[in-house]
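Suppose a colleague, Dr. K., hands you the sequence of a protein chain of 423 amino acids and asks what its three-dimensional shape might be. Before reaching for any lab equipment, you can write down a predicted structure in token form. Begin with the sequence itself:
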Amino acid sequence: MNFINSLSFARQLDRTDPLKKFRNEFLLPKVNKKPAIYFTGNSLGLQPKSTKKFINEELQDWAKLGVEGHVHSRRPWLYYHKFTKKALAQLVGAKPLEVVAMNQLTVNLHLMMVSFYRPTKERFKIITEAGAFSSDQYAFESQLKWHGQNPDEALIELKPRTGEHTLRTEDIVHAIETHAAQLALVIFGGVQYYTGQFFNIKKITEAAHKAGAYAGFDLAHAVGNVPLNLHRDGADFAVWCSYKYLNSGPGGIAGAFVHERHAKHVDLPRFSGWWGHNEKERFQMKKGFVPMPGVDGWQLSNFPILSGAAHLASLEIFQQAGIKNLRRKSIALTGYLEFLLKEIDPHETSFTILTPERVDERGCQLSIFMNTNGKKVFNTLTKAGVIADWREPNVIRVAPVPLYNTFEEVFRFAEIFKKAIHR
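The predicted structure, expressed as tokens, is then:
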């Protein structure tokens, strides 16, 4: 697409946008009594208008039925996790057997590492990206220590080449090959939270398996943002949250994927709970854990209905919009933002975009590294009605989300940003 730096062009793109109706499905925050330019869907997605309806229906059934709601509510609570499977499978490129909504992201990460990080004297190393999100770093460190490993020796954190901002896939593969004999697990973010880089899940997984290691992914910034094909790409496991691009509310229920090839591997070590036990025998209260087939066998506790209702409200919108359609708009929306930013500062005097230029290596987030006055510029944006995200030491993350952001908002953001850096 050939972009034009004008308000009329942005408005024309909005008029012809086949997804424009979905903006009206969300509640938009206001700043100074005007709708904010909300570019932080990568941190907390907006609330769908239907969320209140979904939650109220569960409250009504609880009030009317009490405990009988487990069986007789309009969406029986005993089977609630099953209602999310179709939509989640479509979003991450999986089979329904391979996905489940449960727990919180870091809880799920620990549960997956119990099963897929089984260090031996020969194989004990973990490879990941340097600067992974802090909860992932803490999980890796604590898992290593739990197994009696020294994180300084067992955790390999890959950094970009000198003068570069993101990792090259060939460097990741090379590191996996270099440590192959001692490698137990390769685990990356799907999209790196700080730079916005979309990693090549297929190639990383292939390299890990060739080395004899498992491959897992934290999809917190990828799910609902970029197209995923976890089953086809062969990842062993993945985890994600639902409160960012999936718009399921602060602290909303998270999710997990386990590949079908592990579906009936009942001897795979895991921490067990009653909701992961064979549902036909679940209430017989017998000793001896018999896992449900697929990822359902990793469930611990019964489903949180109110959080799950908010999750369903958003997933319904995703099914209507379609992730492929959202991806097409995302590429255009983020591409327009990149175009406008480069016109503001073509020589990168004031700022640098850390996020890769290739559209297949990024989602809808651009990370703007401020060379000077970063916090001052960010505060000016905030006062002007832009809700963006500041990350230390000097990065402004902006994410125009295709479900509810517009091309006009991208244009207006660029105008505000230009004035802010020239003040």
